[in-house]
């Protein structure tokens, strides 16, 4: 990073106190805050991988001042972590992709889950998704399409969704203690409202229904005529961090209670993945 971009990004965290003898001691705090701000912007960009995000969108989603977002974007673009098109929309950059590839070696979940996802898509004929928890969100790390000619490609690999705004992310939310679950719903309320017919109260009802059923079910709550079933992958600690889901036309998922068979298949494959990860727990333990 050249000096100009370093200064621009440091400005985003606020000016130093000139002549303040404690300024040097506070430098690490400002640096940590800057990293936190940049991470907010990157997460917001990851929510909009297909259509991109304008500065006004990023300001709304990060709750950062416009000047701060603008300066951070200049630095992120200079380093290849973000990029800007001719219409002023911003996207994740090539370096973000490269870093993801490098990190993948430490997270073999996608490789381990590949066979299970293929079986799910083959047996159902529909699209299977694998999502992992990332703070208040869930990120799609893999997708396997089935053979049915009309496919519900509702989420792209790399897309983020607030917890509760997709069947797999709902499966993660339902296993949280009640107070923690409610805190995340409140925290994500404004973002959840951008997805179809969702709002905080709808998600609360979906969580309650998921706990009653034992799996997550989205029936036309996000996209009309599209339904999805989600099941969490067990963990040793009991708190899941990944989940599988199947999405398809509602006429396929809900007909003759087919969603029950899909949920059973997802549980079976979630337990298979947990076994390969050496977790030693099954969905029945939840």
From TrEMBL:
Domain HTH iclR-type per the UniProt entry, residue ranges: 32-95
Single annotated GO MF: DNA binding
This protein's record includes keyword Transcription: yes
Keyword Repeat among record annotations: no
UniProt cross-references to InterPro entries, sorted A to Z: GAF-like_dom_sf (IPR029016), HTH_MetabolicPath_Reg (IPR050707), Tscrpt_reg_IclR_C (IPR014757), Tscrpt_reg_IclR_N (IPR005471), WH-like_DNA-bd_sf (IPR036388), WH_DNA-bd_sf (IPR036390)
Single Gene Ontology BP annotation: negative regulation of DNA-templated transcription
Keywords: DNA-binding, Transcription, Transcription regulation
Domain of life of the native organism: Bacteria
Record-linked Gene3D superfamilies: 3.30.450.40, Winged helix-like DNA-binding domain superfamily/Winged helix DNA-binding domain
Domain IclR-ED, residue spans: 95-279
PANTHER family in alphabetical order: HELIX-TURN-HELIX TRANSCRIPTIONAL REGULATOR, ICLR FAMILY, TRANSCRIPTIONAL REGULATORY PROTEIN
Name of this protein: IclR family transcriptional regulator
């Amino acid at each position: 990073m050249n000096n100009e971009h370093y200064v621009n990004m440091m400005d985003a965290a606020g000016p130093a106190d000139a002549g303040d003898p404690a300024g040097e001691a506070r430098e690490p705090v400002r640096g940590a805050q800057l990293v936190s701000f940049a991470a907010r912007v990157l997460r917001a960009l990851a929510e909009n991988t297909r259509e991109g995000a304008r500065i006004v969108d990023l300001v709304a989603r990060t709750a950062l001042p416009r000047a701060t977002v603008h300066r951070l974007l200049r630095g992120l673009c200079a380093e290849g972590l973000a990029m800007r098109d001719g219409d002023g929309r911003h996207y994740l950059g090539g370096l973000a992709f490269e870093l993801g590839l490098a990190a993948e070696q430490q997270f073999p979940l996608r490789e381990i889950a590949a066979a299970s996802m293929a079986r799910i898509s083959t047996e159902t004929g529909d699209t299977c998704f694998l999502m992992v928890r990332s703070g208040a969100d869930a990120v799609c790390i893999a997708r396997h399409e089935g053979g049915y000619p009309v496919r519900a490609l509702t989420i792209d690999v790399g897309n983020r969704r607030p917890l509760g705004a997709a069947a797999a992310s709902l499966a993660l939310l339902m296993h949280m203690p009640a107070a923690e679950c409610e805190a995340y719903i409140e925290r994500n309320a404004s973002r959840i409202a951008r997805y179809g017919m969702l709002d905080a109260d709808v998600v609360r009802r979906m969580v309650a229904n998921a706990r009653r059923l034992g799996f997550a079910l989205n029936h036309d709550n996000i996209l009309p005529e599209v339904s999805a079933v989600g099941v969490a992958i067990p963990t040793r600690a009991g708190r899941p961090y990944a989940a599988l889901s199947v999405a398809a036309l509602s006429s396929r998922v809900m007909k003759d209670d087919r969603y029950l068979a899909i949920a059973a298949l997802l549980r079976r494959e979630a337990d298979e993945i947990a076994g390969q990860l050496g977790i030693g727990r099954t969905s029945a333990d939840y």
